[in-house]
Amino acid sequence: MSAVRTPAPRSVDDLEATFRDRFDAAPDGVWFAPGRVNIMGEHTDYNGGFVLPIALAEGTWVAARRRDDDTVRLHTDSPDVPDPSASVHLGELHDGESVGWASYAAGVGWAAAQRGFDVPGLDIAVTSNVPTGAGLSSSAALSCGTARAWVDLAGWSLTDTEVADLGRDAENHIAGAPTGLMDQLASVCGRSGHAMQIDTRSVEITQIPFDLSAHGLALLVIDSRAPHALVSGEYAERRRSCQEAAAALGVPALRDATVADLDGLPDLLLRRARHVITDSARVEQVAALLTDGSDPRMIGPLLNQSHLSMRDDFEITVPVTDLIAETAVRAGAYGARQTGGGFGGCVIALVDQDAAETVAEACVAAATAENFNEPASFVAVPSDGARRIS
């Protein structure tokens, strides 16, 4: 069996049939929102820095129908959800009070109400092929797919950034997930064949050419299957350290500092700040290489540098992702790094197209030899953002 297995897309016909079965009516439409993988720039977003994600071909499909009350009824076919059906009254949602997995969808309605919109209820059925727990923003795909559906059905006039912001507020305030805006912007604003250089301070998005196949290359995503979790204490420590470093340097955020400024900081704060500053700079370096027509293979060393920075300075890698990144490079990848918030999740590897299988097999062999879970790999294809499909 191949070690590279693309997640199968979901059937819109099946989703519509599920909707009719659950809600005794046809949906008003079906929307799709992608997951994302970040090429460069980890933990730079809440420090005002740069990030470089792509939207994936994998994502979440949302069938929705407008209601005449404030009820949101939801159903998912996800086997990872203990209770696949939920019902929420929007008027009963409160900041900081989660309603389980339904928070990512129903929370969008709460966020819209906070902005003064007249928010109708919805019936919603969802299906997804984004691997959960892998740090590929399956939650942002759900919140942004729902946001796009709600905007269309309610007739709100919103920019793409405002749509993404609804998704972020749902995650931050109702689901209790401490995300920045990168995941939602990537899900909403993705463009086929491009990566997005996002200035998280100005929220300016620059579409960067990222057509690897034209160069005989592929971006291999290797899911370590070590569940990605933004461990509350660890994540809070990283944010706190960054804030303390910025305060000690007398700058609003680490975006405003340079590595040369860090002399004299305590070792922990120095290392945390150094990762943020250098990873944000690597985003700009990668974007410049891709924009000026350089061979994309040249970004490989920057991927390797980023992984070492996350491992040694920010300390958010885990033994299995370290092993996978090292193995991928030994097996022929031009560069590899853990991607996402850390403490598990996926590694990305820049490989020749015809070497993807070899690299993936090497990573399986290395991980299982050390009694880790068997990794699962697929090729990431830069794709379009959230949209209505029927």
Automatic annotation (TrEMBL):
<feature type="domain" description="GHMP kinase C-terminal">
    <location>
        <begin position="294"/>
        <end position="363"/>
    </location>
</feature>
<protein>
    <recommendedName>
        <fullName>Galactokinase</fullName>
        <ecNumber>2.7.1.6</ecNumber>
    </recommendedName>
</protein>
<dbReference type="InterPro" id="IPR000705">
    <property type="entry name" value="Galactokinase"/>
</dbReference>
<dbReference type="Pfam" id="PF00288">
    <property type="entry name" value="GHMP_kinases_N"/>
</dbReference>
<dbReference type="InterPro" id="IPR036554">
    <property type="entry name" value="GHMP_kinase_C_sf"/>
</dbReference>
<dbReference type="Pfam" id="PF08544">
    <property type="entry name" value="GHMP_kinases_C"/>
</dbReference>
<comment type="similarity">
    <text>Belongs to the GHMP kinase family. GalK subfamily.</text>
</comment>
<keyword id="KW-0547">Nucleotide-binding</keyword>
<feature type="domain" description="Galactokinase N-terminal">
    <location>
        <begin position="18"/>
        <end position="66"/>
    </location>
</feature>
<dbReference type="Pfam" id="PF10509">
    <property type="entry name" value="GalKase_gal_bdg"/>
</dbReference>
<dbReference type="InterPro" id="IPR014721">
    <property type="entry name" value="Ribsml_uS5_D2-typ_fold_subgr"/>
</dbReference>
<dbReference type="InterPro" id="IPR013750">
    <property type="entry name" value="GHMP_kinase_C_dom"/>
</dbReference>
<keyword id="KW-0067">ATP-binding</keyword>
<dbReference type="InterPro" id="IPR006204">
    <property type="entry name" value="GHMP_kinase_N_dom"/>
</dbReference>
<dbReference type="InterPro" id="IPR019539">
    <property type="entry name" value="GalKase_N"/>
</dbReference>
<dbReference type="InterPro" id="IPR006206">
    <property type="entry name" value="Mevalonate/galactokinase"/>
</dbReference>
<keyword id="KW-0299">Galactose metabolism</keyword>
<dbReference type="InterPro" id="IPR020568">
    <property type="entry name" value="Ribosomal_Su5_D2-typ_SF"/>
</dbReference>
<keyword id="KW-0808">Transferase</keyword>
<dbReference type="GO" id="GO:0004335">
    <property type="term" value="F:galactokinase activity"/>
</dbReference>
<feature type="domain" description="GHMP kinase N-terminal">
    <location>
        <begin position="114"/>
        <end position="190"/>
    </location>
</feature>
<keyword id="KW-0119">Carbohydrate metabolism</keyword>
<dbReference type="InterPro" id="IPR006203">
    <property type="entry name" value="GHMP_knse_ATP-bd_CS"/>
</dbReference>
<keyword id="KW-0418">Kinase</keyword>
